[in-house]
Hints:
alpha+beta, Ubiquitin-like (UB roll), 5-stranded mixed sheet
Amino acid sequence: MAETLRIEVAYVAPGQPFLQALQLPAGACVADALQASALRLHFPELDLAVSRVGIFSRPATPATPLRDGDRVEVYRPLLVNPKEVRRRRAQQAGKPGTGGA
């Protein structure tokens, strides 16, 4: 097991991608990576206590242990529920004169 972990922390705000490489001690978890990152400096409006996070697109929790090479991703909240968008499209497709079938 490595004595240090090489990980990345990623976040994408509209027009502002953030990617930071970090070295953390073995045994570090997602919360440690977020604390060590500069996310709060770049995005003070971001509430890391309630933000959804993942590792390589797989859901994680703040207590999830990290492995060497992991990328911790912080996800923005959805502005629109994808199910609602599909429902609206289906309703529009069924209306005459809207270009639907």
